[in-house]
């Protein structure tokens, strides 16, 4: 068995019937030419009578059959004496599949097709039950009516129809997959091999109507699942989480570039990727949130000196992921109870932030991104509570106070270029390094505009009380007439495409944010810039969650239109 087959076999052997195997096996059948009639997911919660998947397809002799597939995995992946005769075990499932006739009169000739029953298990038939099993099958079935697909057969067909034919068909993909898995849990991994591997798959698709297009999404799902599996094996879910972000953003960018966002089958396949990503994020937060939300749960007592920096960094990274997880949950599982669910999500976020002071201590200037993510998530007028308003007011008050304390005590503001080394040196020595830059700030400019939403002169004046008059206060924007902004957001960091509006400039003789600072005049100035938010096709399709993910992933500032619309003129 070659190394590719070993990778495939190890991966398949790890799949669980109730989630992963149920999901991947229909993809395989589809690529093998079967027509899927019913899957386990569609009949979940109902008696399936030994028919997890029902399909129509030809056997090795070219004869069309209706196929009943019974999937056994996880603890039942091996056929043993114990699971052979237990309730809902192997024997009972086979008998039910044989005795219960499945009809579908909407498919011409379906009911008259001969039947073939297949037990699919990602394990083996144990020697101590083999004679009993073979005797049972020979008594109950005629030649050609029953098949058993074990781990070895599954390895062969997965390799033939997915891995060897498509994913591992070229040397580059082969090499990159192996390197991805080998270095998956390496410290400071940027997952460059995985990113290159994903990119190669898109380069193979020349015609979106071709069979390669279907295989592309099957491959992307498998890549997601493989990395998730190995991350769980390593008991370290960060690689799966980070790789899934890139895969989702890269896929949607490819869809936009090829103008496929209006194709329902394409969006349907993309949403399957989102569902897979949700499983990854769900597992990550199941594992971490119960600890994170306790008092100082995100603080590491073993981090010693580094925690002065590591604690807030960890908090803002966690906040970015948590807000996205909530948005993703609300996108994947549409519900009439969305408002109640979102309020529950907000309550958990409030508990998390109240118990971790690191959320109120930004040290990078681009910590404005998770801060605005939080603000926008809580400010949704459809489910805005007084409790949310009070929380946000308290959050910004605490954050601004901490920024003031850092300036007074250490003459330090968040580092503009978001570099950790100068921050570490500054904290360690107490002396500002030459390459530490805090002469400009996007974060502080945004906070000044946020004070307008709360109509708080006190917060406005508090910010002005500790910033230097020479500080350049910048609001980032972009020219929608010059760029295809929606595509760019899903592609890269927009270093050269963004431009800044320095809001402290003199206008009409008023030094709005210097000695003659005037809250009312500043508000008037900002309101003059207020405009309707731009329209995104991504949002129109109900996928705004991934647009916000793109902002966080590529560190592109959220545009001012999104918070300025909340500023009231009165």
SSE inventory with pairings:
Layout: H1 3-13, H2 17-31, E1 35-38, E2 53-58, E3 64-72, H3 81-84, H4 90-99, E4 115-121, H5 127-140, E5 146-149, H6 151-167, H7 171-182, H8 192-203, H9 211-233, H10 238-257, H11 264-292, H12 307-332, H13 338-354, H14 368-378, H15 386-410, H16 420-429, E6 440-441, H17 443-453, H18 457-466, E7 472-477, H19 485-489, E8 499-502, H20 519-529, H21 537-540, H22 544-554, H23 561-564
Parallel strand pairs: 3-4, 4-5, 6-7
Antiparallel strand pairs: 1-2, 2-3, 7-8
Helix pairs in contact: 1-6, 2-9, 6-9, 7-8, 8-10, 9-10, 9-11, 10-11, 10-22, 11-12, 12-14, 12-22, 15-18, 17-18
What is the end-to-end distance? Answer: 74 Å
Instruction: Name the shape in a single word.
Output: elongated
Distinct helical segment count: 23
Task: Compute the number of strand runs.
Answer: 8
> What is the CA-atom radius of gyration, in angstroms?
28 Å
Largest sheet composition? 5 strands, mixed
Mean pLDDT: 89
How many domain modules? 3
Q: Strand order, main sheet: write it out.
A: 1-2-3-4-5
| Multimeric organization | single chain
- Supply the helix-strand structural class: alpha/beta
User: How much of the residues is beta strand, in percent?
Assistant: 5-15%
The parts where pLDDT drops under 50 for at least 5 residues are none
What is the share of helical residues? 40-55%
């Amino acid at each position: 068995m070659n190394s590719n087959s070993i990778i495939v076999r190890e991966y398949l052997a790890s799949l669980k019937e109730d989630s992963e195997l149920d999901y991947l096996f229909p993809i395989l059948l589809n690529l093998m030419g079967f027509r899927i009639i019913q899957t386990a997911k569609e009949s979940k919660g109902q008696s399936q009578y030994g028919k997890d998947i029902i399909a129509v397809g030809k056997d090795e002799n070219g004869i069309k059959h209706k196929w009943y597939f019974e999937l056994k995995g996880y603890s039942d992946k091996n056929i043993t004496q114990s699971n052979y005769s237990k309730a809902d075990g192997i024997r009972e499932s086979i008998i039910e599949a044989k005795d219960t006739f499945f009809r579908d009169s909407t498919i011409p000739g379906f009911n008259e097709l001969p039947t073939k029953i297949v037990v699919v298990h990602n394990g083996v038939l144990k020697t101590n039950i083999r004679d009993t099993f073979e005797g049972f099958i020979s008594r109950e079935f005629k030649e050609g009516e029953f098949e058993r697909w074990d781990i070895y057969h599954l390895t062969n067909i997965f390799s033939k129809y997915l891995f060897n034919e498509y994913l591992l068909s070229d040397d580059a993909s082969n090499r990159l997959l192996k390197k991805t898995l080998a270095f998956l849990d390496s410290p400071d991994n940027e997952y460059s091999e995985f990113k290159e591997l994903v990119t190669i798959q898109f380069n193979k698709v020349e015609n979106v109507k071709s069979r390669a297009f279907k295989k592309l999404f099957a491959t992307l799902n498998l890549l997601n699942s493989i990395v998730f599996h190995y991350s769980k094996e390593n008991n370290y879910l960060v690689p799966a989480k980070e790789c899934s972000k890139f895969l989702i953003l890269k896929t949607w960018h490819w869809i936009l570039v090829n103008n496929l966002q209006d194709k329902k089958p394409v969006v349907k396949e993309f949403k399957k990727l989102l569902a897979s990503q949700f499983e990854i994020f769900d597992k990550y937060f199941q594992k971490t949130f119960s600890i994170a939300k306790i008092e100082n749960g995100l603080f590491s007592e073993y981090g010693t000196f580094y925690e002065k920096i590591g604690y807030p960094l960890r908090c803002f990274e966690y906040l970015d992921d948590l807000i996205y997880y909530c948005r993703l949950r609300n996108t994947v599982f549409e519900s009439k109870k969305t408002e109640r669910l979102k309020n529950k999500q907000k309550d958990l976020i409030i508990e998390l932030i109240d118990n971790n002071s690191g959320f109120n201590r930004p040290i990078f200037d681009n910590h404005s991104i998770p801060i605005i993510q939080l603000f926008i998530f809580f400010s949704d007028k459809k489910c805005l509570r007084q409790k949310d308003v009070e929380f946000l007011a308290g959050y910004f008050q605490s954050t601004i106070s901490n920024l003031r304390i850092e300036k007074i005590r250490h003459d330090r503001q968040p580092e503009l270029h978001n570099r950790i080394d100068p921050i570490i040196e500054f904290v360690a020595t107490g002396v500002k390094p030459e390459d530490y830059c805090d002469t400009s700030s996007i974060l502080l400019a945004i906070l000044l505009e946020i004070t307008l939403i709360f109509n708080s002169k006190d917060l406005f004046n508090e910010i002005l009380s500790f910033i230097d008059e020479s500080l350049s206060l910048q609001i980032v924007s972009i020219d929608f007439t010059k760029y295809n902004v929606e595509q760019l957001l899903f592609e890269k960091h927009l270093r050269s495409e963004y431009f800044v509006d320095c809001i402290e400039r003199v206008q009409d003789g008023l030094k709005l944010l210097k000695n003659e600072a005037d809250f009312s005049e500043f508000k008037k100035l900002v309101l003059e810039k207020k405009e309707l938010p731009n329209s995104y096709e991504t949002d129109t399709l109900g996928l705004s969650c991934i647009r916000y993910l793109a902002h966080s992933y590529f560190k592109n500032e959220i545009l001012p239109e999104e918070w300025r619309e909340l500023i009231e003129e009165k």
